[in-house]
Amino acid sequence: MTNKESLQRHLLQLDNRGYKAYKDIQGSYEFSEFTLIIDYVQGDPFASPSKFRVIVPPNIAQIPREVFNSRSREIALRDYLTRQFDKAAHSISSKRGTGKSGMIAVTRFGQEVLERTSAFIISSNTSDIEDLGGVELRFAVGLPAGGRSILGRQAAEMLCEDIPQIVSNSLKYSHLNAAECRRHVETVEDADWLRQQLAEKGLVAFVAEGSILPRRSGVDNRPLLNNAVAFQSPPSLKVEFNCPNRGLISGMGIPAGITLIVGGGYHGKSTLLRAIELGVYNRIPGDGREFVVTNPAAVKIRAEDGRSVAGVDISPFINHLPQGRDTAQFYTENASGSTSQAANIIEALEVGRRKKEGTTRILTRIHGLIYEEDLVPVLLVDEDTAATNFMIRDRRMQELIAKDKEPITPFIDKVKQLYADCGVSTILVMGGSGDYFDVADTVISMDNFQAYNVTEKAKEIAKNYSISRAAEGGEIFGEITQRVPIPASLDPSRGRRDVRLKVRDVDELAFGTEDIDLGAVEQIVDSGQLRAIAAAMVYAKQQYMDGKRTLSEIIDLVMADIDARGMDILSPFPEGDFAMFRRFELAAAINRLRSLSVVAK
User: Are 257 and 441 in contact (CB under 8 A)?
Assistant: First the structure.
């Protein structure tokens, strides 16, 4: 390890040399208040930026332990420090030369508070400072270049002047807004606490009164500022909680079972469902949906025309296809709306878990917290993105097309069986078919972004206006078949020497020679999640895919390893741009590999 002065001298000596000479600076350097570690140096000014870390010891960072004394608070604090470093870097760093020269940046982030590899809290082992914490912060640097020549003087300014100032402004607790920091960690801790209380109260989701659900636009996830209507709960669905920090909070509780969200167009049905589907994550203070929390196993289900399906048993929904095509092990490279929606449901059930009678209760870690309950999915469906022929077959169509000529058993005839047989609740946005009144346990009407409990009225309408449609779902839902992936069908190199992984925003992943389209997997909200998912797919292939373990067992093992040792196990060197994902999104990426081949267990 050398020091700041030697790094500065070395950079000045590199001035005007070829860019690859920057490789010589890789290593560790002791500064007065932190250690700077250069893990990777880019070989070209237009290549991916260099990877840096700073380690600020507890006696310098001086973060009070009470700010990170729980797992929930620690994750929130790491998120807060990442955002502060980003703010300081934007205010100090500047463009220097060609390509990415001059860039100092952390991972990208949005409204969600996720566990990330960008920042870690360091606890002291020294008794006199045992109540303080230090920080490890990982970031990227675009080392300055003129063409493909090193700009050594500018590099020395960046690394030896800019970085120390950024560290001082963002990673020393005395320079932070303490009240803002505490609000950040307390908000996340309360949201985590609320999410843990849902099952005890028989709920699958909670929407706090005063929440601002509308967003600014489809590409701007921040809260709508003008003319936004604050959410209020129907009195009959109102529940109260006494949070650890915020204290008493009230809002709408959505009970387990089948819930319909109805109402006219543009009155907030899909906006409410979108808030609920993202309620599996925590949000930053000021987002407007900080206290919209959802069962951590909630999965958005939609039709996905054109996706590949590998050996999924969709027979609970679709049978006797023309030409005798097998639906117990259904394969297609170009799924229809109905077959894709059926596969999406079965795949979610396949990797969800349910405790069997007489067995030990399953412990599941979500957001770093233990949930002592079965990981049974909650299905979230919006008719706008569903296949019409999968959702409903009305009486008139039943009369015209006999059941033995219709392969699809509509969702309306399976949704109650899902709850009765599998414990799977469903929240469904439905504005076009009152047939679902017959199967709904709760009906919520949205009117100008306000919710009303219209369950009794819907049941009365169902009684007075009988549809007389014949139920087509049989007596039981059906079995969920486990599948075993064939290891050779997942090849991240596809004949190349090196693994090829590349992420494009949150909707596309290059895996070997394949491009996996994840645009319909709406609960991937951060590109860091997708990078971690890509690395987890490689890890799963290398460690656990043996042609015997089921996909669910493989994902169990991968998630357990991450829980025990962190996301760093997914990469050969420290990564600063991984964000934590759920088992459902990891399974979704694997299931959409067009090369995937499986056998039934």
Answer: yes
- Residue 254 in contact with residue 442, Cβ under 8 Å? yes
CA distance linking residue 139 with residue 136, whole number of Å = 10
Q: Please give the structure tokens belonging to residue 220.
A: 């701007």
Q: Which among 522, 529, 531 has a CA at the least distance from the CA of 502?
A: 531
> pLDDT tens-digit profile of 379-396?
999 999 999 999 999 999
Q: Rounded distance, CA 206 to CA 219, Å?
A: 25
Three-state DSSP string of 285-328: CCCCCCCEEECCCEEEECCCCCCCEEEECCCCCECCCHHHCCCC
- Residue 555's identity, in one-letter code, is I
Give, in order, the Cα–Cα distances in Å from 557 to each of 51, 350, 460, 552: 29, 15, 49, 9
Please state, as a whole number, how many other Cβ atoms lie within 10 Å of the Cβ of residue 47: 13
**CB of 490 within 8 A of CB of 537?**
yes
HEC states along 498-541? CCCEEEECCCEEEECCEEEECCCCCCCCCHHHHHHHHHHHHHHH
- The CA-to-CA distance between both ends of the chain, in Å, stands at 53
Q: Environment class of residue 278 by beta-carbon count within 10 Å: exposed (0-12), middle (13-18) or buried (19+)?
A: buried
- 371: which 2 tokens? 């949930």
d(CA 110, CA 579): 12
Q: How far apart are CA 460 and CA 466, in angstroms?
A: 10
Q: What is the pTM of this model?
A: 0.94
Entry field: residues in the chain: 601
In this structure, how many other beta carbons lie within 10 angstroms of the beta carbon of residue 107? 23
* Angstrom distance (rounded) from CA 139 to CA 52: 5
Measured between alpha carbons, how far is 281 from 522 in angstroms, rounded to an integer?
13
Query: Among candidates 269, 303, 227, which has minimal Cα distance to 454?
Result: 269
d(CA 439, CA 467): 12
- Answer for the pair 309, 340: CB distance below 8 angstroms, yes or no: yes
26's tokens? 């890789």
Distances 378 to 24, 254, 339, 451, 555 between C-alpha atoms, Å: 53, 12, 20, 21, 19
Closest CA to 299 of 550, 586, 555: 586
Name the pairing type of β-strands 378-382 and 426-429.
Answer: parallel
The pLDDT, as a whole number, for residue 566 is 95
**Could you tell me if 176 and 84 are in contact, meaning their C-beta atoms sit under 8 angstroms apart?**
yes
| CA neighbours closer than 13 Å in the CB half-sphere of residue 98 | 11
Strand order across the 514-517 sheet:
501-504, 508-511, 514-517
State which H helix or E strand residue 30 sits in: strand 27-30
Among residues 63, 62, 60, the alpha carbon closest in space to that of 32 is found at 60
User: How confident is the model over 312-361, as pLDDT tens digits?
Assistant: 999 999 998 888 789 999 999 999 999 999 999 999 999 996 544 443 44
Cβ–Cβ < 8 Å for 567, 574: no
pLDDT tens string 152-210: 999 999 999 999 999 999 999 999 999 999 999 999 999 999 999 999 999 999 999 99
